[in-house]
Every structure is written in structure tokens, then in C-alpha cells.
Amino acid sequence: MKKWSLFLLLCLLFVPGVFAAGTCELDKYDYIQAETAFFSCSCTLSNEENVAGNIVWRNSTNHILQSTSTNSGNCKDNIFEDTYFFPSGQNFSGNVTFNTTSANWAGIGDVVSDTFNVSGASAIDCLIYNITTNEPVPGDIAVVKFHIKEGSTLNDLLDVKCSMSVYNIDGQPIYVHEDEISGDHYEVSTTTGEVYFHHELSESLWESNHTLEAEFHCSCLNNGNDSSTICYDETDGSVVGYKVCTATSPLQLSSGDNRIYSTSWGLAVLIVGILFFLLLLANTFKDSTKWFHQSVRLLLILLSVWVLIIGGSLGISFANSGGASDTTIATMQAFYKLTVYFGWVFTFLLLLYFFYEVMMAFRIDKERKEEEILGK
User: Fold this and answer.
1) Which of 200, 222, 244 minimizes the C-alpha distance to 332?
2) What pLDDT score was predicted for residue 216?
3) Is 242 a domain residue?
């Protein structure tokens, strides 16, 4: 009985490590012509990281459609991926594989391949086409755009409702798009079938140099009793019927971090606290009234600078929530960064000056006391 207990304990300890593995998969199995497939990989073991290889797309006759050199990189925390565009007029099946000579991706639990099938569009298919992102830095505005087309004719569609969700490497949703004006969780296609999402990446959940998965769902419900559910073919203006489509795309966050708003607030409070302490210290000098008023003036100047900086950050947030254009917000961010930079330079110089004045005050105070002692 003890032997069996020991055996079960060992299984519990080692089985998770045995089956922890690298995993690759497509975003779905069935695709329509002119659609783009998304293939992503992640891993759980350190020896599976930074492994070179190729992501190879093949049809059912083993003909290579596309081969892309890649590296697994930091795949425990970050996906690596590839996409392939299925051309029009071709129905076929095939597979995609992460090919590598490394034995670290050949374990019992590793899944490095997936299969797909491509066919013509059905009557209810729409097509999410040409997804583009701006590879933002955390703290900046992420912009995602694509076009919605009718699955068979490839005509642009108007008034299609689309939602967007972002998933981390564990497949957990970390962001669901919400319009900052209306509060709706969808955006509507406009001229040329364009759908446009934007969001300021100010939250702490966004990490630099990470590739996340963005998932899109679009639909036309065509409920005759509700005009907001009806979609139109832009080419001839006709009403299209019920349409649904989904797609997945990488959302690459660049290196760097421009989320300086919250840290600016904390550091500003710290600096004001230091100056307040120095103000109390200056009040102990013999000529306290002079130093007190000088300290208050310096403190008010510093507070004015940081009120301007904090007001700038609030102005950017207000402009973003008010639907200001990307150009306007980008210009405001550029001026804000310059304000913060010169604000810190000014603060540093002001602190140096204030410390110098305090030291001089101590010296003068000491000399006066020595003179008084000698005078006695």
C-alpha cells in the first residue's frame, strides 16, 4: 500500500512536467476563399524558448504554399505566429507546421501542426479582410483597421457591427473593446467597408514587446423590425441578409513604455512632500519670515508646473474619450511629453537651488550665532 501511495505521489509531481509542452494551432479549421488564416504557438518549458525553425504551409498534396523563418523567442510569455492568405478560386485542404530540428519541440506532449480546409463562401458568410495594426507602445493609442466584404462577391459591406477582444498567451480575455463615447461593445463598418478600433493603452495589463491575439466577430442580423441590424452592399445599395464572420490577428506591442501619467502624479506628490519638509526646516532659521515666504513662493512655482503637467494628462484622456482624431491626440501627446521632460528638468534645477539656499541659510544662521557669542 505504501508503495502504491509513493507511486501516485510521484505521478502527481512529475506528470505536469511531462505533459507541459509547446502548442501550435490555427484560429479555426474551416476557411473561405480570400480569407487569412492565423497560426500561433506558445510553450511552457524554458528549453523550448529561442528555438529557430520555419512555419510551413502545405496543401494536401504536400506542396509547400509558404515557408516563413521564425524563432520561438520568449514563448512562455509571448506567442510567435504566422498568417497565410488563401487565394480566390481554389478549394483545398492542407496543414501548417512549426518545423524545427530541435528535439525540445519533439516531446510527447508537443503539438506543432494543425490542419485546415478552404471552400467557397456560403450565403451567410462575410469576410474580414486586410487587418492592419500600428504596433503601438504601451501608453500610446492602438489602432486596428480592416474591411468587411460579402463572402461571395467580395463587395464592401456597410453598417456591419464588429466587436474586438484581446487574449493573452493563456487564452484568457484581457480586453473587450468598448466605444468611449457610446459605451457600445462594437464598431460599425463605414465607406469601403472599413471598421476602425482605437484604444489608449494606459492600463497596467499591456506589456511591452509582447504579441497578443486580437479576435474579431462581425455580423448582420437583418432583423426587419430594427433598422440598426440591417447591412448594405456598397456596390449597389441592396440590403444583404444574415451574415457572420470571425478572424484572428496578432496584436504586436512595441518596446518602450509611454505610460508616464500615473508615475508623474506619484513623483510630484513626493517632491511636494520634500519641499514641504524643507519649508518647515527653513522656518527654524533666525530670519524665519524671509525664508518662509521664499519657500512658499518656490513651492507655488513647483505646484504650478505640476498642475500644468497633470492637467495635460487629463486633457489627453478627455480628448481621447471625446472622439478626437488620432492626429490631434498624437500632437497632444508629443507636447505633453515635452512638458513632462522640461518639467522634470525645471524641478531638478529648482530643488538644487532650494538646497543651495537652505545650506546658505544654515551658514548665515551659524555665523550670526557665533557673532552673538563673541559679542557677549
Assistant:
1) 200
2) 97
3) yes
